[in-house]
Amino acid sequence: MSVPYKHEPFTDFTVEENRKEFQAALKKVEAELGQDFPLRIGGELVYTDDKITSENPAKKEQVVGRVSKATRDHAEQAMQAALTTFEDWKRWDPEARAEILFKAAAIIRRRKHEFSAYLVYEAGKPWNEADADTAEAIDFLEYYGRQMIELKNGIPVLSRVGENNQYGYIPLGVAVVISPWNFAFAIMAGTTVAAAVTGNTVLLKPASTTPVVAAKFMEVLEEAGMPAGVINYIPGSGSEIGDYIVDHPKTRMISFTGSREVGERIYERAAKVNKGQYWLKRVVAEMGGKDTIVVDKDADLDLAAKSIVASAFGFSGQKCSACSRAVIVEDVYDEVLEKSIALTKELSVGETINDTNMGPVNDQAAFDKIMSYIEIGKEEGRIVAGGTGDSSKGYFIQPTIVADVEADARLMQEEIFGPVVAFSKAKDFDEALDIANNTEYGLTGAVITRNRQHVEKAKTDFHVGNMYINRGCTGAIVGYHPFGGFNMSGTDSKAGGPDYLQLFLQAKTISESL
Ligand SMILES: NC(=O)c1ccc[n+]([C@@H]2O[C@H](COP(=O)([O-])OP(=O)(O)OC[C@H]3O[C@@H](n4cnc5c(N)ncnc54)[C@H](O)[C@@H]3O)[C@@H](O)[C@H]2O)c1
Ligand SMILES: N[C@@H](CCC=O)C(=O)O
After folding, report:
1. CATH 3.40.309.10 occupies which residues in the chain?
2. To test ligand 2's pocket by mutation, which of 133, 181, 183, 494 has the most ligand atoms within 8 angstroms of CB?
3. Are 336 and 448 a contacting pair, CB within 8 Å?
4. Which of 118, 209, 390, 500 stands the most exposed, by the fewest C-beta atoms within 10 Å?
C-alpha cells in the first residue's frame, strides 16, 4: 500500500546548499548537451538522418540536443506497435501499471535537479520555474498512479434481489498525446502517463522546441519497467505527422494541450469518421487563456500588485494561466498600477543559468509575435514598464505593462503568451467582473478583495475553470487545484483532478441475473 499522495515540495533556492546543488546539476547537464536521441517505436531505438535540433532560447548557439524526427512511415510503425502492445497492456493489473509510475517518480525525485537543469537549458526556465515543472511531473506520476488504484475495481452501483451489478472501467485503445513546450516536462509526462496507466498505449508527439526532456523521460520510463511499445516516442513536425496521427482510423483518443488554433483543427479533424474506423474519437483539448486578475476597491493592494506581477511575468508570461489582464476598480487603479510598476522594475531578465527572475521567450516566432503586441499596446494604451526586446543572443523581452487599455481592445482579448499585461479600469466590482468575463476563453482568474459578498459573487459569476481568491492566477498544484478551462480554453478536462483518468477510460456495466 502506498503512502497518501502529497505534492512534491519546491526547492528553496534561498538556501545556499540548494543553490550549490543546483549549480552542480547545471554544470553536469551542460557537459552532456548536444547528444543525439532516437525515436522509440515498439521498444526499438530508431535514429534518423533528419533531426530536430533543440536550442537554448537564452543562448541561440547552444544546442541542447538533436532528436530524430519521425516521418509518416515512423508514425505508422508506431501505431502498429501500439495496437499490438495494447492487446497485452490492457490486461495488466492496474496496480502493476501504477507501480511503474511510482518507480519513475522515485527515479526522477533522485535526479530532480538534473531534470530541472534540462528545463533551464531547453525551455529557458528560471530555476524556480524549472523546479516547479519537475515537481509537477513527479506529482502527476504519484497522483495518477493512486487514482488508477482507486478506480481499478470500478464504482459501486446498486444490485437487487436476483441480480448482481458491476460498474467498471476499461481502456480505450491507442491514445495520441500531443504536448506543448511551456510545461515541457510536467504536461508532457502527465498526459502521457494518464493515458498509459489506464491501460491505453500511446503515441507521444512532444513539442518540437522541447523534445530532449521528453527523450530523457523515455529513458526513465524504460528504467522503471514500462514495457516496450506502451509509449512510442515520435517527435516530428505538427504538419508532417500531426494530421496523420490525428486522422488515423485506429486512433481511439487524442489528448492535446496547446494553442487554440491547433486545438480547433484537431477537434474538427477528429470528428470525421475515416475508413476502417468504428468509434467516435475522444478528444481532450486543453487550449489557451486570457486570464484576468480583478482588484476590488477594498483589497490588500500590495497583495494585488504582487499577485499581478508574479502571475503576469512568471516564466515570462508563457503560461496558459498567466495574468494578461488586470482589471482594477477605479478608486484604487492608480495605486495598484504604481505598485505593480515598481515591482516590475525590480525583475531581472537574462540567461536563466544565472537564476534570473525572467528568461527568454520560446523562439524567434514567439519573440516577433510578442513584440508585435507591444506595438499594438502603444496604440491601445500607455507603455508604463518595459516595452523593449532583444533577440540578438537569446529571445529576451522586458516585462511590459500597458496601462489604460479598453476592455474590448486586442490586448485585452487575444492570447499574447508573453510578458505583457494590460491594465484596465472598471467603475465598480460588478463592472470589473463583466470585463473579466468578456473574453472567448475561460481558463483561470483571480479576485483580490476583502469584501465577503464580492467573494461570493465571484464564486458564482466569474466564469473560469480555475478561480482563485486573494492570490495569483497561476501555479495550480496536482491534486489540490484540478486544472482546466471553460469555453475556448478547452474541454475543461481537469488535469490533476479526481475525475481526470476517466477521460482515458470507457465505463462498462455488467449485470448478471442470479
Ligand atoms: N490549457 C492548458 O492546460 C494549457 C497548458 C499549456 C499550454 N497551453 C497553451 O498552449 C499554447 C502554447 O503551446 P504551443 O505553442 O506548444 O502550442 P501549439 O498548439 O503550437 O503546439 C502544441 C503541440 O501541437 C503540435 N501541433 C502543431 N500543429 C499540429 C497539427 N496540425 N496536428 C497535430 N499536432 C500539431 C505541436 O507540434 C506541439 O506538440 C498556448 O496557447 C497555451 O495557452 C494550454
Ligand atoms: N497549470 C499551470 C499552467 C499550465 C499552462 O501553461 C498553472 O496553473 O499555472
Report:
1. 291-477
2. 183
3. no
4. 390
In sequence order, the β-bridge partners of residue 169 are 507
Cell 489540490 sits on residue: 480
Please state the CATH superfamily assignment of the domain spanning residues 291-477 in this structure. Answer: Aldehyde Dehydrogenase; Chain A, domain 2 (3.40.309.10)
CA distance 150 to 274: 35
**Residue 306 CB coordination number (10 Å):** 17
Catalytic annotation present for 320: yes
CA of 478, nearest ligand number: 2
Coil, helix or strand for 271?
Answer: coil
Hey, what amino acid is at 310? Answer: A
What's the CATH code, domain 16-287+492-513?
Answer: 3.40.605.10
Q: Name the grid cell of 424.
A: 484596465
Report pTM: 0.98
Could you give the percent of the chain with pLDDT greater than 90?
Answer: 99
Catalytic residue (choose from 8, 55, 320, 323): 320
Characterize the bridge pairing of strands 389-390 and 396-397: antiparallel
Q: Which of 8, 114, 286, 351 is catalytic?
A: 286
ipTM of the complex as predicted: 0.98
Residue range(s) occupied by CATH 3.40.605.10 in the chain: 16-287+492-513
288 Cα: distance to centroid of ligand 2 (angstroms): 10
Is the model's pLDDT at 1 over the cut of 80?
Answer: no
- From the list 200, 199, 189, 198, the residue with the least C-alpha distance to 251 is 200
